[in-house]
């Protein structure tokens, strides 16, 4: 369960650094504007590389948390074919349920607003500005982690990420780009919120990646990346060629790992590295904290095709 920031004091957690560190981390993040450029071949004046226009072919799959199936879960996403393609995921922070707030309302309204502003002149194809405008337009109570990626027809993928949704770029069977989760402390991600204590578009980690035809990207909520390792994502891509089938297979894999108490998931590895572990009596018996993490699982697979 992800923890909402309801009061500024909650940022200061027994497990975390003093509050001043959280604030400096936020400032550092807001200043960070990564530009990561990958290209498969270098061009020269004698042999100019003529790049065809590209766009995304997209497949999606959402599997709600087993206990939230009736309401569809608390993840939301949208896909747009505007320009080269726009994909986005928002993950509602589940801890709002304890405040009698439906955690699905904020991410759903946020995604609907973001979808409306995709072609907005002021947004001008900048996912960070899209986050700002969608956040300002969202009136529901709650909070969410959000990732938005916009592909330009020249192959530039612009990514803005607040929290622990994620994106991987895969080229020739290798992950060549990966987002990093942002968090205040374990299980309390950076989040866009209805409350003033949450993050803003300025806290987004912004990256530009140059994509080429044949590249594949995977975007997902933490329900995917907490339960599926990168090497498993790559293996799945080898088996399935169709984007819809790949998205479904990855979501099913995440779902089966999430329910498997024996699986040593990315989430349990991370938890143990943070000092969370099985009770002492279990450790004496040689047991450790393992298992997947039950959560809503959203997967968007995009393949770069010439258009
Ligand atoms: Mn989640």
UniProtKB/TrEMBL annotation:
The keyword Phosphoprotein does not apply. It comes from the Eukaryota. Its EC number is 3.1.3.16. Keywords: Hydrolase, Magnesium, Manganese, Metal-binding, Protein phosphatase. GO terms for molecular function: metal ion binding; protein serine/threonine phosphatase activity. Coiled coil: none annotated. It is an enzyme of class 3 (hydrolase). The keyword Manganese applies. Belongs to the PP2C family. This is Protein phosphatase.
């Amino acid at each position: 369960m992800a923890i909402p920031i309801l009061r500024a004091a909650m940022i200061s957690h027994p497990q975390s650094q003093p509050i001043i560190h959280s604030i400096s981390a936020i400032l550092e993040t807001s200043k960070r504007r990564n530009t990561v450029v990958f290209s498969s071949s270098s061009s020269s004046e004698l042999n100019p590389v003529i790049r065809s226009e590209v766009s995304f072919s997209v497949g999606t799959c959402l599997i709600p948390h087993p206990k939230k199936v009736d309401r569809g879960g608390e993840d939301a996403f949208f896909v747009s074919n505007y320009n080269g393609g726009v994909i986005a995921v928002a993950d509602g922070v589940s801890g709002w349920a304890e405040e009698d707030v439906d955690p699905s309302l904020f991410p759903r309204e946020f995604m609907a607003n973001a979808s409306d502003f995709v072609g907005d002149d002021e947004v001008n194809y900048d996912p960070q500005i899209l986050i700002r405008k969608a956040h300002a337009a969202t009136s529901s109570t709650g909070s969410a982690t959000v990732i938005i990626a916009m592909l330009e027809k020249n192959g530039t993928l612009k990514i803005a990420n607040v929290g622990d949704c994620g994106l991987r770029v895969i080229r020739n069977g290798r992950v060549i780009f990966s987002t990093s989760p942002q968090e205040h402390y374990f299980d309390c991600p950076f989040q866009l919120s209805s409350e003033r204590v949450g993050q803003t578009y300025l806290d987004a980690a912004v990256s530009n990646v140059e994509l080429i035809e044949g590249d594949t990207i995977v975007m997902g909520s933490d329900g995917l990346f907490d339960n599926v390792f990168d090497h498993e994502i790559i293996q799945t891509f080898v088996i399935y060629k169709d984007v819809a089938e790949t998205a479904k297979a990855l979501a099913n894999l995440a779902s089966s790992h999430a329910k498997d108490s024996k699986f040593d998931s990315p989430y349990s590895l991370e938890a143990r590295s943070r000092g969370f572990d099985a009770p002492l009596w279990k450790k004496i018996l040689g047991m450790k904290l393992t298992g997947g993490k039950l959560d809503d699982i959203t997967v968007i697979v995009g393949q770069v095709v010439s258009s």
